[in-house]
Structure formats: structure tokens, C-alpha cells
């Protein structure tokens, strides 16, 4: 059974930092790209980052590029999202998902509970 468990969220001030973790189980993580997506209050899902299966390449949305860094440890089945220079607009529930920018929504039924990030100014 596929399971994705996000953690590391919390409250931060404008310009602060948080590090999110996504622990995967029930599938072979090293064969999948993993994306981070988020859902702000009253808005739809937004794809923000991807780490490719081998961890060699990463991608970011314009909204987080230069501030967020994704990484992964396939041996531990964990994907991380280092978030720096946080803005109130980053307030959202953050999820990890299999897939890339175009395909993550195919795995929506496997999304976990997510982790809440709240940024105050």
C-alpha cells in the first residue's frame, strides 16, 4: 500500500525557513519522480517542485524558484523541501506526490494528509 507522510510544517515569520520531509513507503521510490504540491486556503493545488528519480535533476515553479530546494535520499525513502525566505503567500498545506508537473494529479488518490505551513508578516 502506497503511503506518503509529510512533516516539518509549522509557523514561520516573513523571511524565515522551514524544512519539510516526505517519507514514502509501499513502492520503490527510486523509480519515481516525486513532486511537491501545495494548496493555499481557498485555492486549488499548485505544483511547486520536482526531484527526478535518480535525484540528479530538480525543477521549480516560478513562485518558489531561488527560495526552495528539493532533495531526496532514496536509501531512506525520504524527499525533502528546504524552504527559505518564506512569504505569506507560501501559506498552504504542502503535499508530496509521485509524478511530475504534468502527471502528479494522476496519483491524487495516494496523497497523504499534508503538512500545514503558515507564514506571517
Radius of gyration: 13 Å
How many H/I helical runs?
Answer: 0
Helix vs. strand class: mainly beta
Strand order of the largest sheet: 2-10-9-4-5-6
Shape: globular
What does the average pLDDT come to? 97
User: Element order, helices and strands?
Assistant: EEEEEEEEEE
Per DSSP E runs of 2 or more residues, the count of β-strands stands at: 10
Note poorly predicted spans: none
Spatial separation of the terminal alpha carbons: 40 Å
* Largest sheet composition: 6 strands, mixed
Provide an overview of this structure.
The chain has a 6-stranded mixed beta sheet, with no helix packed on it. The chain is 0% helix and 48% strand. The chain is built from no helices and 10 strands. It is mainly beta. A hairpin with a 6-residue loop joins strand 5 and strand 6.
Fill in the keyword field for this structure.
single chain; 121 residues; mainly beta; 6-stranded mixed sheet; 10 strands; 0% helix
Summarize the structure.
This protein is an all-beta fold and 121 residues long.
Q: What's the arrangement of secondary structure elements?
A:
Blueprint: E1 3-7, E2 10-13, E3 18-25, E4 34-39, E5 45-51, E6 58-60, E7 68-73, E8 78-83, E9 92-98, E10 115-120
Parallel strand pairs: 2-10
Antiparallel strand pairs: 1-3, 3-8, 4-5, 4-9, 5-6, 7-8, 9-10
